[in-house]
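Deliverable D2.4 — example input (structure tokens):
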């Protein structure tokens, strides 16, 4: 009858769901309370022996084990004795294997005993292992416990395969050293006797003994196992009737063979074991391998380990002498004799094993063959050394071995016999497709290492590799080729492909090279399984690799090209093969462009159905990549249209249009023929766009997208000089396409992918058509600006505008004068009046911090709700942006600065002066804010460079009367900023709401010409003061930048250059007065550093100003750090 304790414990072990959760929780609480009692060990000792419930007994052992591991040293002596007595008593009760405790109780009992061993062996309990061995005669159950205790010793204390702390590692070493000194020889003797006694009577128990012994071989004295008594027993077990016993014996022998030791003793160990003659008998197959797959793999592992260890020992043995000789040390005769004898012994062992090794390597079971790859790599490396010593000649036996390795390599590299890719056409069901792709990925992964071996062989025995590949191809395409499987044909072609990488130049000579001749034979051959998807792809890849051979064998070009165009290539039923054929055909055309010119008409005629199919049947991913998500994405309307589009699915078929462009875009082609062919290609694509823009069906966006991409790819083959100067009528055909394409963003303003593709089309046509495209650019840019829906859209427009400005420069002035006001208005509207110009929201970490802070302050309110007072750019009440939106706006801000940088550095800054009233104020103030407060040093530097350029172009050097006129007297009042430009401390977006008088108002003092009246005075306070000094030192106080960083150092240098420029062009005295009276005292910088900065601005060079700025910045940064520590 169970008491309350046992009932509670049984409830906690109930996982049927039939116990009330509240009751189970109370029971768990009760058991935990019992477990926390320091005397719980007494309860465990009592209940384990008396309870009839397995759950209770398991809990007792588990609790006792945990307690012993953590608190055994704190036990009183009497308690320790009582616990040890109880555990040993329970151990003796396990003598009956069948009637004794369940296996999981035996495991837990072994762990509890080892927890005691941890503290008492060998100092307190030196006879632990002797006592354990002495009890073995009491019954099979104690043999079982003997093995479980040794396993627990290994897992809990000894093995370092499990990550352990430093103290645990020390304990492991102490236990191992003590066992070596006191016990391990007795344990090893027990293993031997147990195997003798139970190998026939109880094979399962013998397997358990072997599995236990296997754990200890790596660190015990190997002579305890590898001796004339033990080894014959182990070797005999390889022939036991019980397959599990064979497998366990193989594992033990593998551990013995892989024992770490010096090279000479290792070879002697292998010799003394007598294992080489045994393994050499496996040339006709592994014994018992056909009956048990697990045994087969273990025997294969043993053979692979043995072979690898022998060749590694040979290498180490020979290198020991070579290393001594290399450093000039003498090698005595005894050492030389030892090396010679060891080399002879290892050579004999390897020669005896090689037939069995090659038999295993030629197995079509990967688990048998692939473990031999390390040996194969090592053996080929050894052959390389030996061949080099023999003046590049390879002995006949090594040559035979190379042929055997190549044969095995070809077998390993094949697809499986029962291949999921057996269906040579398009895979049927989704399950078949998934299985084929998985198998193909596995084979490709396996081949990576196999073909490294193949290339290494070809480097030392190219003629053998070439001969082997030729024989493989001949067997595939010869008279008996019809009986070849697709696996054999495919691997023969792939090996020819791989042989071409790094092949000797003589072999690749188009006219006489043997490898080139082999490639030509393949191109002219009728190949079995040619339309199998794997064979077809391999053939096309090989044709492209050897395309240079076709330059000397032009009569083969038609047959080679036909493979790309018919059912073996673009016409293949499998879409992946057809798409790959398009890509590879483009590569072939690039290589043979001149040679294919005479075949252009025929090729284009054969390509026509493929071109029509590709243009009219676009590939669309499962999510609707061609036009966004859902109907709203397809039509460009609806709420979902504003989300960012998915990336277009990569359509390799479009490479065929690039190939066609390369064929058509040759100057040597007759003008009329070239024009007619290009028109026949472009006209249907234009009509496809126009018709779908008018129909607006569900599939229209994807068809428009495909047509645009086709034209862009086609255009890549035409050089700019051809379409603009030599044959301008070709260029007009492309501009007609642009006239049609301009309607796309207007028709689908919300379709991100179409918009992006239109922009990339403009990019491409600009590169090709050059200035002839200028008349069409205003309409293209205007439609992009007017149809933009978010910051990301506008960023794309700015990037495109930058490209145009950099390419056309002054020719863009009139366009820019009309476009810039529109861009500025839309850009500031996209950023919003409360945008933080510091760029913090462009940084994910800062944005997350800001959002979290606002959410916490608002009690978990929506992240898109309004915040409190804003901090960026002096603004207040700005809403907290969603992370993606903040990132996109941050990218737009940077693109804005990049655009202005290009404008002022391409001589187009006068376009800024044409901005309407108020717009220029907004632009300049945005740049000043970026220079003074942006979190990115690179962005600040860009802004300062913009301001430098404006000062250079808008402010001439003042004459001597400028200072006298009051431009910047140290004691006089500073001139006001230009009307409409707010003070430097105001936010950039605040400038948008400034006076409507704009820049037309006059500011302070004169002196020297000003393109913008009052800009000189404004530059003193806003640029020289706020941007170059105030904002920079404020960053130092906040620790924004590390002055040791390259970007921050460049920023300091740029600020120094700008300060010198302000001093020279905007009134030096006014600048120094502003810094000394209004700005520097407020920063907290020591007076000495202030004076140093002012002096270097007046008297020093830019590098001196930089160092003064660096000193002030570093002082503020250090002061801020000290304040935080306090």
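Example output (designed residues):
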């Amino acid at each position: 009858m169970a008491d309350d304790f046992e009932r509670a414990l049984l409830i906690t072990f109930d996982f049927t769901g039939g116990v009330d959760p509240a009751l189970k929780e109370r029971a768990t609480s009760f058991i935990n309370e019992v477990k926390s009692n320091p005397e719980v060990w007494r309860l465990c000792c009592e209940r384990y022996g008396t309870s009839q419930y397995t759950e209770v007994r398991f809990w007792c052992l588990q609790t006792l084990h945990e307690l012993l591991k953590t608190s055994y040293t704190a036990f009183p002596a009497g308690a320790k004795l009582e616990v040890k007595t109880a555990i040993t008593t329970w151990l003796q009760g396990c003598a009956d294997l069948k009637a004794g405790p369940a296996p999981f109780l035996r495991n837990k009992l072994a762990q509890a005993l080892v927890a005691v061993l941890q503290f008492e062996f060998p100092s307190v309990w030196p006879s632990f292992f002797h006592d354990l061995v002495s009890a073995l005669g009491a019954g099979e159950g104690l043999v079982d416990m003997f093995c479980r205790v040794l396993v627990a010793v290994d897992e809990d204390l000894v093995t370092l395969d499990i990550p352990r702390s430093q103290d645990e590692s020390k304990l492991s070493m102490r236990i191992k050293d003590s066992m070596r000194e006191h016990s391990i020889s007795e344990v090893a003797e027990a293993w031997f006797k147990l195997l003798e006694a139970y190998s026939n009577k109880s094979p399962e128990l013998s397997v358990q003994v072997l599995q236990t012994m296997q754990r200890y071989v790596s660190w015990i004295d190997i002579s305890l196992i590898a001796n004339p008594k033990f080894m014959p027993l182990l070797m005999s077990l390889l022939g036991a009737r019980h397959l599990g016993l064979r497998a366990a014996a193989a594992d033990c022998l593998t551990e013995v063979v892989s024992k770490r030791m010096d090279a000479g003793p290792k070879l002697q160990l292998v010799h003394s074991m007598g294992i080489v003659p045994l393994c050499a008998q496996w040339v006709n197959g592994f014994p018992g391998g056909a009956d048990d797959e697990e045994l087969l793999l273990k025997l294969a592992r043993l053979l692979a380990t043995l072979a690898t260890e022998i060749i590694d020992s040979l290498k180490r043995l020979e290198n020991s002498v070579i290393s001594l000789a290399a450093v000039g040390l003498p090698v005595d005769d005894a050492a030389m004799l030892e090396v010679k004898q060891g080399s002879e012994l290892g050579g004999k062992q390897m020669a005896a094993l090689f037939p069995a090794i090659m038999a295993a390597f030629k197995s079509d079971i990967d688990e048998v063959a692939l473990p031999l790859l390390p040996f194969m790599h090592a053996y080929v490396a050894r052959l390389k050394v030996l061949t080099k010593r023999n003046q590049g000649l390879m002995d006949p036996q090594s040559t035979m071995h190379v042929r055997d390795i190549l044969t095995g390599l070809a077998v390993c590299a094949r697809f499986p016999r029962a291949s999921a890719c057996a269906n040579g056409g398009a895979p049927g069901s989704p399950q078949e497709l998934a299985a084929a792709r998985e198998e193909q990925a596995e084979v490709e992964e396996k081949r990576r290492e196999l073909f490294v071996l193949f290339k290494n062989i070809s480097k030392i025995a190219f003629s053998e590799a070439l001969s082997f590949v030729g024989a493989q191809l001949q067997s595939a395409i010869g008279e008996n080729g019809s009986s070849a499987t697709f696996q054999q044909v495919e691997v023969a072609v792939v090996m020819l492909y791989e042989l071409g990488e790094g092949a000797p130049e003589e072999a690749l000579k188009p006219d006489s090279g043997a490898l080139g001749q082999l490639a030509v034979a393949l191109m002219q051959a009728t190949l079995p399984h040619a339309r199998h998807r794997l064979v077809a792809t391999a053939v096309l890849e090989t044709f492209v690799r050897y395309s240079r051979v076709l330059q000397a064998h032009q009569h083969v070009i038609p047959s080679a090209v036909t493979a790309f165009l018919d059912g073996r290539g673009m016409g293949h039923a499998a879409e992946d093969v057809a798409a790959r054929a398009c890509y590879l055909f483009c590569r072939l055309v690039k290589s043979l462009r001149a040679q294919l010119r005479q075949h252009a008409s025929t090729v284009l005629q054969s390509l026509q159905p493929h071109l029509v199919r590709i243009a009219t049947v676009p590939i669309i991913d499962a999510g609707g990549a061609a036009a966004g998500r859902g109907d709203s994405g397809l039509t460009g309307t609806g709420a979902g249209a504003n989300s960012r589009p998915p990336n277009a699915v990569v359509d390799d078929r479009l490479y065929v249009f690039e190939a066609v462009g390369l064929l058509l875009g040759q100057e040597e082609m007759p003008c009329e023929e070239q024009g007619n062919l290009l028109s026949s290609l472009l006209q249907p694509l234009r009509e496809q766009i126009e018709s779908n823009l008018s129909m607006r069906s569900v599939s229209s966006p994807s068809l428009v997208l495909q047509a645009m991409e086709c034209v862009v790819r086609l255009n890549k083959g035409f050089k700019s000089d051809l379409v603009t100067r030599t044959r301008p009528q070709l260029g007009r055909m492309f501009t007609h396409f642009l006239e049609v394409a301009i309607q796309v963003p207007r028709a689908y303003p919300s379709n991100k992918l179409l918009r992006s593709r239109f922009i990339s089309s403009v990019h491409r046509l600009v590169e090709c058509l050059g200035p002839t495209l200028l008349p069409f650019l205003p309409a293209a840019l205007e439609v992009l600006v007017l149809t933009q829906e978010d910051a990301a859209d506008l960023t794309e427009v700015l990037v495109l505008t930058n490209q145009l400005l950099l390419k056309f420069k002054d020719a863009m002035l009139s366009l820019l004068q009309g476009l810039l006001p529109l861009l500025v208005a839309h850009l500031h509207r996209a950023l919003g009046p409360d945008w933080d110009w510091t760029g913090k929201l462009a940084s994910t970490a800062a944005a997350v911090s800001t959002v979290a802070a606002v959410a916490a302050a608002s009690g978990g309110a929506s992240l898109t709700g309004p915040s409190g007072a804003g901090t960026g750019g002096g603004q207040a009440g700005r809403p907290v942006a969603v992370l993606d939106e903040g990132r996109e706006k941050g990218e737009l801000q940077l693109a804005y600065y990049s655009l202005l940088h290009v404008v002022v550095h391409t001589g187009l800054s006068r376009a800024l002066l044409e901005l309407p009233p108020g717009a220029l104020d907004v632009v300049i103030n945005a740049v000043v804010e970026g220079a003074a407060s942006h979190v990115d040093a690179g962005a600040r530097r860009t802004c300062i460079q913009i301001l430098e350029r404006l000062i250079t172009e808008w402010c001439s050097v003042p004459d001597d009367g400028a200072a006298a006129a009051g431009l910047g007297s140290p004691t006089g009042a500073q001139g006001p900023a230009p009307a409409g430009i707010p003070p430097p401390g105001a936010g950039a977006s605040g400038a948008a709401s400034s006076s409507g008088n704009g820049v037309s108002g006059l500011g302070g003092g004169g002196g020297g010409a000003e393109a913008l009246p009052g800009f000189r005075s404004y530059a003193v306070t806003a640029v020289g003061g706020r941007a170059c000094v105030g904002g920079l030192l404020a960053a130092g106080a906040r620790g924004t930048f590390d002055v040791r960083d390259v970007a921050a150092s460049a920023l300091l240098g740029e600020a120094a250059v700008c300060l010198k420029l302000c001093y020279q062009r905007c009134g030096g005295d006014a600048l120094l007065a502003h810094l000394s009276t209004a700005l520097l005292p407020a920063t907290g910088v020591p007076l000495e550093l202030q004076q140093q900065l002012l002096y270097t601005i007046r008297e020093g060079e830019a590098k001196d100003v930089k160092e003064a700025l660096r000193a002030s910045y570093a002082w503020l940064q250090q002061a801020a750090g000290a304040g935080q520590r306090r």
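The radius of gyration is 42 Å.
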